[in-house]
Design a protein that fits this description.
pyruvate-formate lyase- activating enzyme, 3-stranded antiparallel sheet, 5-stranded parallel sheet, globular, 302 residues, alpha/beta, 12% strand
Length: 302
């Protein structure tokens, strides 16, 4: 963590709010006078200690926990989002519930992203079977658990892939790319160029402007294309990922597999939607429970 650069930006940038995405291991050393100014902190953590350390190195989980205890003890009151990378070693049902309810540090907000690997020659033969037999059924179990928690507690758990997706289905609102890439959320490159997504470094043909010559209202919108434009769940996912839409990093069978995971989420939410409407009508839960800050580093669609 380049703490000097973070402090310089926070001391001088004329912005309304700050967010940071971090592995969390050095957060406690930044200083409360800076840490407490963040509206949101996204921390990379994948579930229990064994799983997180498997993905990120031995001892990482404990270092994250130490940092989180340090910043909360020094007064941090913003949102802390546990940001998971989901791989073939992940049981999504168990991992999310662990982060939400463990005794080390219970995350009030959780997001997860599939590690589908942006590579045509990815050697991961277990991925298709894991996705269809473990991850997709796990999402349905997790959605039912999410609904049951609303029934029992009257609280909508802040699990980002479920929040605005459910809210939009409730009100019948179509979505553009839910991460905001290329239409509402842009990345400033180190040379001042404005790209539609932080991943799209060097893809200059898709840049939307430059900080020296562009204003926010004039930035080019970068549309999705290809199979996404005719997909029957496009209004639900918005196209999933602009980068993968443009670069086509997977063979067709892998792309279809990933898209089916989105359809699985769509179907799962639809199945519990009548219960959520009933809970809203009864006053057990509030529509405000599904709201969150948009474009805060959570892609929404895993």
């Amino acid at each position: 963590m380049r703490q000097d650069i973070i402090r310089e930006i926070m001391d001088n940038a004329p912005v309304r709010r700050f967010m940071i995405q971090t592995n969390g291991t050095l957060l406690g050393s930044l200083g409360a006078e800076y840490t407490n100014r963040f509206e949101t902190i996204l921390v990379s953590i994948d579930g229990p200690e064994e799983l997180t350390d498997l993905n990120r190195g031995k001892g990482t989980y404990r270092r994250i926990m130490d940092s989180l205890h340090a910043i909360t003890s020094e007064g941090f009151g913003g949102e802390i989002i546990g940001r998971m990378t989901v791989t073939e070693d992940t049981d999504i049902f168990d991992a999310v519930r662990y982060l939400a309810g463990n005794t080390d540090f219970s995350f009030q907000s959780i997001h997860w992203q599939l590690d589908a690997c942006f590579s045509k020659d990815s050697n991961r033969p277990a991925f298709p079977d894991w996705l269809t037999t473990c991850y997709n059924p796990g999402i349905h179990r997790l959605l039912r658990f999410w609904r049951d928690m609303m029934e029992e507690t009257g609280v909508v758990q802040r699990w980002y892939p479920f929040l605005s997706t459910t809210n939009d289905l409730l009100v019948g609102r179509p979505a553009k790319l839910r991460c905001g890439a290329g239409h509402s959320n842009y990345a400033i490159m180190t040379d001042g160029s404005i790209g539609p997504c932080p991943v799209m470094v060097g893809m200059k043909e898709h840049y939307a402007g430059h900080i020296n010559s562009s204003s926010p209202g004039d930035l080019l919108e970068i549309p999705i294309s290809g199979p996404c434009t005719t997909c029957d769940v496009r209004d639900f996912c918005g196209g999933r990922c602009l980068y993968s839409n443009i670069t086509n990093p997977w063979p067709d069978e892998r792309r279809i597999l990933v898209c089916e995971s989105v359809r699985n989420l769509f179907i799962g939410i639809q199945e519990i939607l009548p219960d959520i409407r009933r809970l809203l009508k009864s006053g057990k839960i509030s529509a405000e429970g599904f709201l969150h800050t948009r474009y805060n580093g959570c892609e929404i669609i895993p």
